[in-house]
Amino acid sequence: MSCSLPEDSLYASASPPDQHDNASPILDALPGTMAWLSLLMCVVGLVYLPFPLLTVSASLALYVASRFSVAIYANIKGLGDIRRAERTNWRDYYAAHRTDPALAWDDVHHLVIVPNYAEPIALLRHTLTHLAACDGAERMTIMLAMEAREADAEAKARQLRDEFDGRFARVLYALHPDGLHGESRCKSANQNWAARCAVRRLVDDLGYRRDHIIVTTMDADTLWHPHYFAALTAYFATDPERYRRMWQAPIRYHANVHAINPLMRLVNAYATAFELAFLAANWWLSLPISSYSLSLNLLEACDYWDTDVIADEWRTYIKAFAATDGRVIIQPVFLPFLAQATTGDTFLQACINRYRQSLRHGWGSKELGTAIRIAQKNRHIPLSQSVRLIARIAHDILLPGAGWIIVTVGAQMPFLFHPAMRESLLHDPFSSPSYIVLQCAFVLFTVCGVAVWWIDVITRPPRHTPRWRGESALVVLGFFALPLMTFFFVALPLLQAQTRLILRDRLDFQVTAKQT
Asked: Where are the domains of the chain?
């Protein structure tokens, strides 16, 4: 079956409402303003108050290092959760947790949306092959969310539909028109169009019940764990609060881990570790990332995805937070999915592609303003819940930006600009508590860095290619180059995105090059 645009007039008329983001320029500029104020504060402190600047920098460095060590603990806990989930028979879990309000197993239907633009057909075929091997593929509708501006999009979709006919309940495709009013060229707009098309087909034409459909959106290169959809069925069918849930599996950038430069592997290892830690640690608020699931009821309560937003995951969670009066919860599904790390034909191109991806992620800074506006408009939601949401988003976008400036400038520059201070500390390092704290933070960072690398190594899939010449040396070099890579792949693109938000600049979604 197909859901084709613009051939089918029914779906061609399914234009979503104008969801242009009427953002507050002041709130959007908040993260960038704080980052530049932090830099100004550091410059003033560097000239007039070097020791207080060192104290603030050392204190923040110790906080970050301590948080890193807690994340290692949560990561180890998460590995145990993954082992238990992989041993679970999800049919048995369903039978054990089924109560009167539970849905029948076979009534649950999965709508899986695969947004893509200019992706090689080989990559999409690889993704669909893995989906077809998942438990429950027979109760799965695949929606290939294509972009009409891609010249061969429909031909590619038709070919894939024909190739995978019979391996799912059905394969649909939609062609998202270019240039709709109020839209940006982004994944979120594509998802919006495709989801509305799919619902018309499944609910209006085929008679599926809305409250039996769970929607999963994914990146084009996501490789789901074979039992993810079985676990999702069990959780969804047995949970009385199913319409206030979003489900998130841990992400691992391991789909092409052996094909990328060892220096880049280390950066991805840290991202993988923290995402698992957020899911495994109940003292942190989890937010969705990349590929996730939610009920169709909740998606419709959110009025689907916004059509002018880059960070669709965070925006959808914030909208769900408002739609459920603050009661939405991310439920972990500890069955990791694999994603491809960015790469390129050369190391330089890989760095450029990674920078562009981080710049796109940095656009999530905009969601701090969205969370604040939601809290202002929904004062009936308990203040503690709104503050927790705002604090989590603010923490994640301010620490790598403004925080990085304070730690880096405050910990390095005073010694360069004040030789007397440097000589004093070198002669008697124990005379300054701040200097001692800074060294402790550095040691803790180093230990945690090695731990993250080791955890990543032991969880990678088996290697089928020989090691590169000098690969081990690059791994060791990566630890020494990590501060520089953090600057170029985390702090700098984040600061650029936040500065562009101050200037009210726009950013379109760009597909980053990857390699299987």
From this structure: 9-22+102-262+276-340
- Residues 116, 145 contacting (CB under 8 angstroms): yes
193: Cβ contacts below 8 Å, ≥ 6 apart: 5, 14, 16, 145, 174, 176, 177
Q: What number of H helices and E strands is found in the chain?
A: 20, 9
> Which pTM does this prediction carry?
0.89
User: Tokens in use for 332?
Assistant: 């972990």
pLDDT of residue 318: 95
Phi-psi sector, 113: left (phi>0), alpha (psi -120 to 50), beta: beta
E strand or H helix at 213, and its extent?
strand 213-217
| Mean pLDDT of the region 299-310 | 93
Q: How many other C-beta atoms are found inside a 10 Å radius of the C-beta of residue 80?
A: 11
- Whether the CB-CB separation of 336 and 252 falls below 8 Å is answered with yes
User: 245-248 and 292-295 as β-strands: parallel, antiparallel, unpaired?
Assistant: antiparallel
The DSSP call for residue 142 is E
Classify domain 9-22+102-262+276-340 at the CATH class level.
Answer: alpha beta
| Backbone dihedral angles phi then psi of residue 449, each to the nearest 5 degrees | -60, -45
Number of CB atoms found within 10 A of residue 68's CB: 21
Longest dimension (CA), the chain: 80
- Do residues 286 and 248 lie in contact, with contact meaning Cβ atoms separated by under 8 Å? yes
pLDDT digits (tens, 9 = 90+) for 170-211: 999 999 999 888 888 889 999 999 999 999 999 999 999 999
Structure tokens at 429: 């390092």
Residue 18 CB: number of other CB atoms within 10 A?
11
pLDDT band at 17 (very low <50, low <70, confident <90, very high): very low
Among 192, 204, 170, 174, CA closest to 299? 192
Task: List C-alpha distances in Å: 387 to 9, 327, 393, 402, 407.
Answer: 45, 14, 10, 20, 25
SS3 content of the chain, % helix, strand, coil (to 5): 60, 10, 30
- Rounded CA gap, 429 and 435, in Å? 7
Instruction: Let me know: does 167 contact 132? Beta carbons within 8 Å.
Output: yes
CA 244 to chain centre: 20
Structure letter (DSSP) for residue 490: I
Pick from 261, 311, 187: which is nearest to 489 by CA?
A: 261
The CA-CA-CA angle for residues 80, 81, 82, to 5°, reads 90
Rounded CA gap, 28 and 89, in Å? 46
| Helix (H/G/I), strand (E/B), else coil: 112 | strand
